[in-house]
Amino acid sequence: MKKYRSSKPYLKCRLKFDWHIKPHEMSSQFLSALAEFLVEKGFKRLGKITRRNREEKCVMKFGSDPQETNDGDVSKENNDMDSMGANSETVQKSSFALIGMRSVLRNMQKNVLSAVFFDTTTIKPSSVATTLGLCAISLRNTKVYAISGLNTVLSKALNMPMVGAVGLMNISATKELCDLASNSFTSVSILNKVLLKLLKKSLLLMTDMFFKKYSLTIHYGFYVEKFSTFLCDLHE
Fold first, then answer.
1. From residue 14, how far is each of 112, 183, 194, 227 by CA, in Å?
2. Given this model, what pLDDT does residue 125 score?
């Protein structure tokens, strides 16, 4: 039977984005500070439960100890209290930062994040890089970065299988870390050549319409070139 492969996602966009990705060696200092911050705020997960630990818990649960059987209601109440404590801890953590692509993207739309960090493997597909780039340039108060080694460092520090995206809330507690990121990296931006090319083309169209409207025969190419040079100097 013939197997059909699903087509890769494709997004055609005339804009090209520069993610200003630096080598992992240049990102290590910031990643260490970010990992320390997240561990301090309680994002580190406990160790995985092994099969042996699970079997010991089952033996304890279904054992013949009458004292444990009589205290079943007490254990249930303790579990409920632990669950409530875990929920409140989750809410407290999310007031500082968010981890995971879905949570980060959802809060990017709400415009409540000060900085967003993606692992470079996350933006490897061109369609994903373009989509995230378009989203990033539409935000006013959020800087978006791509950092090499983000997943490697944070997944190990936080005991998580994968950390592809991290968002820092726009609060005073994250300001120092956001300033460090701003001094260490450059947020995603539109490539200069592409941007200037689009501006130049738009200027040519508008100038052409202007001269044709008033039936002017003055050669305007010289002024277009001067304005393009001005845009380059202004951007630098």
1. 29, 30, 8, 22
2. 86
Q: Which residues contact 235 (CB under 8 A, 6 or more apart)?
A: 192, 195, 196
Closest CA to 96 of 157, 139, 41: 41
- pLDDT at 19 (0 to 100): 95
Secondary structure (3-state) at 119: strand
CB-count burial class (<10 Å; 0-12, 13-18, 19+) for 225: exposed
- φ, ψ of residue 40 in degrees (nearest 5): -65, -35
Q: What is the pLDDT of residue 181?
A: 97
CA quadruple 87, 92, 141, 120: dihedral sign: negative
Q: What are phi and psi of 144, to 5 degrees?
A: -120, 130
Q: How far apart are CA 197 and CA 194, in angstroms?
A: 5
What pLDDT does residue 224 have?
53
Instruction: Tell me the CATH number of domain 17-41+96-190, given options 2.60.40.3500, 3.30.2310.20, 3.40.50.2300, 3.30.1330.30.
Output: 3.30.1330.30
Residue matched to tokens 């415009």: 111
